[in-house]
Write a structure and sequence with these properties.
Layout lengths: L11 E11 L4 E10 L2 E6 L7 E6 L4 E4 L1 E6 L12 H10 L2 E6 L10 H11 L6 E7 L8 H7 L3 E5 L15 H14 L3 E4 L3 H13 L5 H7 L2 H18 L3 E3 L5 H12 L4 E5 L1 H5 L20 H13 L4 E2 L8 H4 L17 H7 L1 H4 L3 H15 L17 E11 L18 E11 L2 E5 L2 E2 L19
Parallel strand pairs: 1-4, 1-5, 6-7, 7-8, 8-9, 9-10, 10-11, 11-12, 12-13
Antiparallel strand pairs: 1-2, 2-3, 5-14, 14-15, 15-16, 16-17
Helix pairs in contact: 4-7, 5-6, 7-8
Bound molecules: zinc ion.
């Protein structure tokens, strides 16, 4: 809470009045926020607000910092038929997400400074929310890490295990190249996001299961046991300890993965880790198993699901990200699991799912803000500009109506392929208003205005762009 004397100031742009502000440390009832020039300028009791040109009454509503979704695949360039930035970022805005960090496994991949600049040009003016880009650490000796860092990459991404082939499916570097690149990233001061699976074990597991003619989700699950994940986390942890490289483990799926992350962190490594809404929610009796739930790593057991919930509540896992990974209807609808492309969508509905199920997940509202805004912003160098409702921060805000009932169906899913993993799921409490830097971008389930998202360069940015 902070007070400023506004008695002689001109009117500010906007005051949102009398909601319950939730931040990473607690809840603050009867709180108003003032916005001017795209930033918060005051946060406090209604009586302490400046005169405003516009006022929004938020009585009975919760005010949260806009979600920072640090793991999306909007598929540009090269795979726009799966989704693209305008649709993906629109889904984000509708779901209370105001910042996305987009992955580099595109076609071509974002693995050179020239390609990074091309992606910037491609997305400019077409995103509904603010965005940053990862750069790819691909196979072979990495030669452009510094150029990509200077271009403004927010961090790097490496796929240690890859079972798929074709566009969007980069192979891993070998351990020698990975270790050398991590030394360079330590020097550059950028974090490495890691898809942690043991590549050779994944290929071996798939060959074995296919020989046994398994075609269902259980076959897919058994082809990538938890050891595939925990081995990769421990290996990258050893390399991080040796090089000083900061690492982030994406989409932790297994109890053994959590244990590996905790062990590595306790050895002194700067390691953060995320899980995703599908691993927290599934298996779920009401939803059941659907082949379209195929994702790498797989959704596992009730025991794994519960371990991930607990790890998020205790802070052993730092945050939630959607790993929003759209595919076309044809790519998700085969009746053989090996012909269903891995990946699910989630950027639009994750916040309302977390909100509605938070008691079951063991999360307070404040934990939710920590896991959806504060920690991802801090991990990727965006805090306190993002993920924070304090004077000076970008005025990214989501207003949640705690009494609003919802059902996820194709009509409300903003996607090129609205047949998502959670279709039919019901809950209570959902975003009704999303503000990006003080401007309303989504209201009552509809997008407002035109795309106004800005690029968020990483900490090494040496702009202007090459
Ligand atoms: Zn991903």
């Amino acid at each position: 809470m902070s007070r400023v004397d506004f008695s002689e100031s001109p009117a500010v742009d906007l005051v949102i009045e009398n909601g319950t502000l939730v931040d990473a440390v607690g809840e603050h009832p009867n709180t108003s926020v003032a916005v001017d020039g795209g930033r918060f300028v005051a946060v406090g009791p209604p009586g302490a607000m400046p005169v405003a040109e516009r006022r929004i009454d938020a009585s009975g509503m919760y005010l949260l910092p806009g979600m920072v979704d640090a793991h999306v695949h909007f598929r540009e360039p090269g795979m726009e038929y799966k989704e693209g930035f305008p649709v993906g970022s629109g889904a984000a805005a509708l779901g209370g997400v105001t910042t996305v960090l987009d992955m580099p496994n595109t076609e071509p991949p974002t693995d050179t400074a020239v390609r990074f600049a091309e992606k910037l040009d491609l997305v400019r003016g077409r995103s509904w929310v603010d965005y940053g880009f990862y750069a790819l650490l691909g196979p072979g000796e990495a030669t452009e890490l510094e150029g990509l860092a200077d271009s403004g990459a927010v961090g790097f991404k490496v796929f240690l295990g890859q079972s798929e082939q074709g566009p969007g499916c980069p192979l891993p570097p070998d351990d020698g190249d990975l270790h050398a690149a991590m030394g360079e990233l330590a020097r550059l001061g950028l974090r490495l996001a890691v898809h942690a699976e043991n590549h050779a074990m994944v290929l071996h597991g798939i060959a074995k299961v296919k020989a046994g003619r398994g075609t269902g989700l259980e076959a897919h699950r058994s082809s990538r046991p938890p050891l595939v994940e925990s081995e990769a986390i421990r290996r990258v942890g050893l390399f991080a300890a040796d090089t000083g490289c900061a690492v982030h483990i994406v989409h932790v799926s297994a109890a053994e993965g959590v244990a590996a992350a905790v062990t590595v962190r306790s050895s002194g490594v700067d390691l953060t880790a995320e899980t995703c809404p599908h691993y927290l929610l599934l298996p779920d009796e009401a939803i059941g198993e659907r082949l379209r739930h195929r994702v790498n790593p797989p959704i596992r057991t009730l025991g794994d699901r519960d371990a991930l919930r607990k790890a998020l509540a205790t802070g052993d896992l730092q945050f939630v990200a959607s790993d929003h990974a759209p595919h076309s209807p044809a790519e998700k609808s085969a009746n053989d699991v090996w012909r269903v492309r891995p990946g699910v969508i989630g950027v639009q509905h994750q916040l309302q799912i977390l909100w509605s199920r938070r008691d079951e997940f063991g999360l307070s509202r404040s934990d939710l803000v920590r896991a959806t805004a504060f920690e991802p912003a801090r991990t990727w160098g965006l805090w306190p500009r993002k993920g924070s409702v304090t004077p000076g921060a970008d005025a990214d805000l989501v207003v949640i109506d705690p009494n609003r009932p919802w059902t996820i169906d194709e009509d409300v899913t903003h996607s090129a392929n609205p047949e998502g993993p959670f279709a039919g799921l019901r809950g209570t409490g959902a975003p009704v208003l999303t503000l990006l830097r003080g401007s309303v971008v989504a209201k009552g389930g509809r997008l407002v205005g035109s795309p106004s998202g800005n690029w968020l360069p990483g900490s090494r940015w040496r702009g202007p762009r090459p």
